[in-house]
Amino acid sequence: MNRKDIKIKRMLQYFVDATVQIMKEEGIENVSARKIADIAGYTSSTIYNYFGELSHLLYFASMRFVKDYLLELPSYLERGETYTEKYLLSWECFCKHSFANPQIYHAVYIADLGEKPEEMLAHYFSIYSSDLVGFSDEIRPLLFESDLTTRSKALLDMAKREREITDEAIEEVNEMAVLIWEGMMTALVNKRRNTDPQEAVEKTMRYIRNIVKILEK
């Protein structure tokens, strides 16, 4: 890495760290370019030399909070004996973390980033490569998949090794699971439901388990 790349990486980290600090102290909804610049020690306009939009910076900072979910996911998957069970457990782990921090997960998995999410994710891991350390071969491919539908479908695709399941059934079940999660997440972010995180997890998982029964037919 040359000196210019090192400087760019350092600047990106300054702004991400400042954003993370604000998110921890005031919440993601109170993040502003001015506050970030004040903490980082630069002008607001400097931020846009490194991030095309504020949503990009929020994405990078939010990924710092998603790491807890990624670290706990392997222990959930170990409890499953079949890939269908692992699929359900992966959703349970995801719902647990995402509903506890809906604003964060909305920024990562739903918010409009203004450009291709896969490029944003690759850029993130190019800066925070240490976040990839310690993950198994089963988990590592999921880290580079920015699309939630494709990402969650991976375990169902593996279930075809264990039983006869059509691609059409997998597509249908997986898409419905994602839509159920997105519906609950949107309701929580917009405060349309007076639901605590645990209740949201239980309700969402009940619906997802019901649709997965389609695969048993």
Automatic annotation (TrEMBL):
Gene3D superfamilies listed in its UniProt record? Tetracycline Repressor, domain 2
Portion annotated as DNA-binding: 32-51
Classification via SUPFAM superfamilies = Homeodomain-like (SSF46689)
State the InterPro entries in the record. Homeodomain-like_sf, HTH_TetR
Keyword terms, alphabetized: DNA-binding
Residue span, HTH tetR-type domain: 9-69
What are the protein's GO molecular function terms? DNA binding
Q: Which domain of life is it from?
A: Bacteria
Q: Does the keyword S-adenosyl-L-methionine apply?
A: no
Name of the protein in its database record: TetR/AcrR family transcriptional regulator
Its source organism is Brevibacillus fluminis
